[in-house]
Amino acid sequence: MKDKIMIKTSSGSYPVVWFGEMAPLAKSVESMMQNYHRSVFFLSYSIEKIYGKVLDHFFPGVKRLILPDGEKAKSLRITEEIAVKLTKDGIHRNTLFIAFGGGVTGDFTGFMASIYMRSVDFIQIPTTLLAMVDSSVGGKTGVNLKTGKNLIGSFYPPRAVLIFPGFLRTLPDREINGGLAEVVKTAVISPSKDFFSYLEKNISGILRRDPAILSELSYKSIMVKASIVQKDEKEQNIRAFLNLGHTLGHAIESLLDYKGVIHGEAVSVGLHFAAYYSKEKDYLDDHTYLRIRDLLISLKLPYKMEDIHKENKLKSKDLAVNMQKDKKVTKSRIRFVFISGIGRLLLPQEVNENELVQTLKKFKKAYQTVIVQE
Amino acid sequence: MKDKIMIKTSSGSYPVVWFGEMAPLAKSVESMMQNYHRSVFFLSYSIEKIYGKVLDHFFPGVKRLILPDGEKAKSLRITEEIAVKLTKDGIHRNTLFIAFGGGVTGDFTGFMASIYMRSVDFIQIPTTLLAMVDSSVGGKTGVNLKTGKNLIGSFYPPRAVLIFPGFLRTLPDREINGGLAEVVKTAVISPSKDFFSYLEKNISGILRRDPAILSELSYKSIMVKASIVQKDEKEQNIRAFLNLGHTLGHAIESLLDYKGVIHGEAVSVGLHFAAYYSKEKDYLDDHTYLRIRDLLISLKLPYKMEDIHKENKLKSKDLAVNMQKDKKVTKSRIRFVFISGIGRLLLPQEVNENELVQTLKKFKKAYQTVIVQE
Asked: Would you say residue A371 lies in a domain?
């Protein structure tokens, strides 16, 4: 494994660098800080509790801004509050913002960096597997509206992404699984089929959270994502492949009001459904469908509706209607990414709502233990 | 006069087009609308009152979003409110936003376009002279914080700027003057000295608001601005020339809490002061200083503090302190753009606060009728 990938964007390129220890990462951050008048860490309350002392040690005297935990940080209200605080502290354009945390912190900090005084530079130091394999790279930033997630945001690449898998030692198992779901998705869309096979061969290593293997997953995932976002930075065509499994995933999260479910769990079931639907449409052969399903099962990831919602009460019709609300949808129709093989995807295509509802019902029925009448 | 200028930006180029009639402008907008699923006009309450019927006539059935009048539209609170409204109306990415109004509407709409669903396209149809000569071009968007103006925003160029000087017929005289102040500033920084001479030769035409001359002023100003923003889109060096007169201008507006003064009036006095300060520092010869001052006087633009604030009570010290708050300031010092001749500017340089205060006092004393002790 190499320890660096350069990501090209329309406005220059930035490195993603892996570190085996905290000290060299800190040194690298420090040398970047030299180019700015000031630096500010953005981190959640929980991360401050875990890593506050580590940051004190490595970055004494560097300002830290504490965000509320979870998705509620991602709002325009908090954006305004924090921006006012920054201006009161005399933070000017020549400042480096540092997102230290998971996807929420990265999304928020990147958005703030893109609009604070018409933009300041920022870097990402992801502390979750999800951020290390996916969200820290690609330049998407955003906050939520009460009408939906990430409806406000920008494409604004960081100056660098610094990854230290050691942070995963403090990450709850459920969050690791959330990241793994995106890893499986990434392996399915990877043009090289080796990534998927690598996962199949390393199930036990992944289950025991072997640090070397998790680091490798981060590297391989970012490689795939980098090659896609470089070809389609603004999501006009193939970047949509990254949304594989997310159409249903988002609908599940939204119907549950983002409660009791984490993003990766919903994506995991969404990914299984995308494979199932692809098989039903005869785009995907049975054998490959089963490989995808069985990998999810072997990795102990959610793969059926019940894994997320015990009572299995999410109605297929409601899910389908909710799938229209995705912002990538043009003209309020449902567009879906299908799989035709490992590494082979079909560009998003419109699906018939009725067909989708029937397929959802069939999917739920095929994988249910709790019998629910719809 | 030609009727089109192309503005190059890092993310493509866009045209600024002048129209002699409303009908061809409407036709041009309509043909752009064809490329989008939907279109939305953004306009202020006042502009809706004046032009609502015109828009009904030319664009029947096209959605219009009404903003509060004045600077109070430019807030994150209104941004959120409008964004929620847009999502509820099912407005997706494939939509054209149309800013129809002055600088505030352009700044707000551009900002909204830059962050709504991670960006949608927008065009500008300026209705004020200020917007026709300055703010509609250059890609700066923004909203205010309670701690200052335009502290939140983005660099986000429109897809096109369509100018119909006929809209100026309904513009209050005071607003015309506000635009003229930016015109004089632009003529001072124009590398070709002809623009400044043109103004000197056409004073009576300008004073009687001759439409052909106002149109020419718009064209000449955009030419100058275009050449500057093309060389320095993100304000790293020469774009700062556009801030000539704005350091004091912003401080005046801010100290008056943006009440009883319009932007162009504050800039007009700020421009005079920039010339005065340049003369005091021996950067500018007396003759050129007087040409600048006398042009402002001939055009009946504010040139002394009293023209803005009758009681002349703004303290020099307070003004100087406020000039530090500008976001272009690094390390909280005061940077100032000096003039060394028509078309000859010095890159922003740091000034000594004490020297600045003394110069402000001298300037006020030289041009006061109301005697105020500081």
From this structure: no
